[in-house]
Amino acid sequence: MRTRLTVSATAAAAALFLAVPASAAPIGQAGAPGIGDRYYPTYGNGGYDVSHYDIRLTYDPATDHLEGTTTLLAAATQDLSRFDLDFALDVREVLVNGRPAAFAATGEQELEITPARPLAKGATATVVVRYSGTPSKVSRYGFTGWLRTPDGGIAANEPESAWWWFPSNDHPSDKATFDVSVLVPDGTQAISNGVLTSQVSRLGWTRYSYRENKPQATYLATLAVGRFDVVSDTTAGGLPVLTAYSKDLGDNAGAARASVERTGELVDWLSGYLGPYPFSSVGGYVPNVTTGYALETQSQVFYSPRQFARGANTGVVVHELAHQWYGDSVSLSRWSDIWLNEGFARYTQWLWSEHEGEGTAQELADYTYAAYSADDPFWTVLPGDPGPDRQFDTAVYERGALTVQALRNAVGDEAFFRILKGWPAEHRYGNATIEQFRAYAERISGKPLGALLDTWLFTPAKPAAPTHPVSAAGPRPSASAPAGELREPLSWKKLQESNSVHEHRPSGR
Ligand SMILES: [Zn+2]
To answer: Which residues have a beta carbon within 5 Å of ligand 1, which is an ion?
Structure first.
């Protein structure tokens, strides 16, 4: 399913040669069509680095028709005769440094661009792409990342989301700042990441402009157009909060608000464990989609209404807000490093359970460990390298959080909480790998952790019963007891329910 189709590339290449004058001897070489991610070889591209996206759109919710102009600021990291962007809509025109460039759509989502003048290593490029399309009708690798709703459309998916609304270097290792400006009919709202900087109505249309001024991975960029009730506020600490709810949430409306309206409070609570909140604003929106997942879109979290079908769900809000530190500010360098996102986001849900008096992190770890017998396939998924098809497997979350608890018990609470808070500061607004995390945790704790992380993240078997901290009252009960002999933590069922909503992709994949 992920095999890239190369049949059309030959025809496209022929068209390109016609567009380039024969006298223009190629200088440099073509940038690679992928950035080098083992899980997704064609995602992202080689040869340049983007620093900023300016995305200017007009969207008609009645027809799902989207018109756009995206301007990217990039720097060449090698001599480039040609480079790719990742994109799936129809491109009308491409300019590089003000000159028309030849372009061709190839493979599933490659947009090959040949600038009129090659780019020398270190040169900056301003790339303008004009395009249009009906995102819900555009399928890549057999699915559509765009979510069509009765009153608009939503871009929120992982890892594939950007292709349906803006051209990009689509990999978390190339982060950039974003300005997103969307023109929609009056009465319809547009939501994106960061701060709403202006809202102007004229002749029946309203333009919403947002700015995310901190580096953001492309999959964390979000766009929502629809009919929303929008709430603007600031936290006690002065952080702007923007929350939005589809007018069409039915019976889930109350529970959605009772959860997402606690965003500011939960950011403050998380800051106690994870350090200062990294972004200039925070928020969350609940559109009228039929999907089940939530996604940590940067500073503006996406929630499916189904998250609130059984009442308020502060756990999912904690999880997605924890990602603002673990995933968004510190982003993974490769998709195989997903444990750095999900293991820690799930662990903060355990800390929240403890705070709410519904079971301590240790009790949840004991119960989780006992819940899966040694021959359960759960233990064959490696949280440290799950593979693209199991990237969002339950084990990445649950065994991932078990790993965090094992680390805590190995280094002790004092060092553990210094690591938990120090890591997001160490790599703020950047990228990191699991190996870098190991080195950091070893430096802070003064303990070798290679064997522990190997056992918990990279071994396809149930680890021996984890060691527990020894309290004054003696050792805790053995975790090797069957689940039936341990008392089920009050938060257990809620956490289990949240396992069924990790599917980050539309159904059918
Ligand atoms: Zn998550």
So the answer is: 342, 345
Distance (Å) from CA 383 to ligand 1 centroid: 13
Q: Which long-range contacts (CB under 8 A, 24 or more apart) does 233-236 make?
A: 233/264, 234/264, 235/264, 235/267, 235/268, 235/282, 236/264, 236/268
Give me ligand 1 centre to Cα 392, in Å.
Answer: 8
d(CA 300, ligand 1 centre) in Å:
14
Closest of 59, 283, 49, 301 to residue 171, by C-alpha: 49
DSSP 8-state secondary structure symbol assigned to residue 54: E
CA of 255 from ligand 1 middle (Å) equals 20
Cα(187)–Cα(196) distance, integer angstroms: 17
SS3 61: coil
Using one digit for the tens of pLDDT, what is the confidence trace for 4-58? 333 344 444 444 444 444 444 556 899 999 999 999 999 999 999 999 999 999 9
pLDDT in tens, 308-363: 999 999 999 999 999 999 999 999 999 999 999 999 999 999 999 999 999 999 99
Alpha-carbon span 145 to 141, nearest angstrom: 10
* Token pair 């780019």 in the structure block, residue: 119
The predicted model scores a pTM of 0.92
**In this predicted structure, what is the pLDDT of residue 496?**
86
Residue 70 pLDDT: 99
What would the two tokens of residue 456 be?
């918990």
- Expressed in angstroms and rounded, the spacing between residue 421 Cα and the centre of ligand 1 is 18
- Distance, CA 219 to ligand 1 centroid (Å)? 13
What number is the average pLDDT over the span 392-407?
97
Q: Report the alpha-carbon distance of residue 324 to residue 440 in Å, rounded.
A: 20
Tell me, in angstroms, the distance from the centre of ligand 1 to residue 24's CA.
49
* Distance of CA 343 from the midpoint of ligand 1 (Å): 8
The CA distance from 441 to 438, in Å, is 5
CA 344 – ligand 1 centroid, Å: 9
Rounded distance from Cα 320 to ligand 1 centre (Å): 6
- Tell me how crowded residue 55 is: count the other CB atoms within 10 A of its CB: 24
